[in-house]
Amino acid sequence: MQKGQSSDRAKREADKAFKPVTTQKPMNDYAKDQHSQNENRERLKAERLAREAESKQLPE
């Protein structure tokens, strides 16, 4: 092993341990509204597709 390897290894391990944490920005009112509208639209779409699939399976 070379003389500088142990310090390089320790530096790499320290960099891994103290890696900066990525944080999400807090949502503003507009983003919260958009998010809730998107969730509601997806929920309604799933319900509609389930109703359509159910009605196609029922014999008329």
Model description:
With 60 residues, the protein is mainly α. The chain has a domain at 27-60. Helix content is 70%, strand content 0%. The protein contains two helices and no strands. It has helices at residues 5-17, 29-57. The N and C termini lie far apart (81 Å). The model has no long low-confidence stretch (mean pLDDT 84). Residues 1-18, 30-60 have a biased composition (Basic and acidic residues). Residues 1-60 are annotated as: Disordered.
Mean of residue pLDDT values: 84
Radius of gyration: 27 Å
| Low confidence ranges | none
Gap between N and C termini = 81 Å
Tally of helical segments: 2
Oligomeric description of these chains = single chain
Rough shape? elongated
**SSE pattern, N- to C-terminal:** HH
Give a concise summary.
With 60 residues, this protein is an all-alpha fold.
Key traits:
2 helices, mainly alpha, elongated, 60 residues
How is the topology of this model organized?
Layout: H1 5-17, H2 29-57
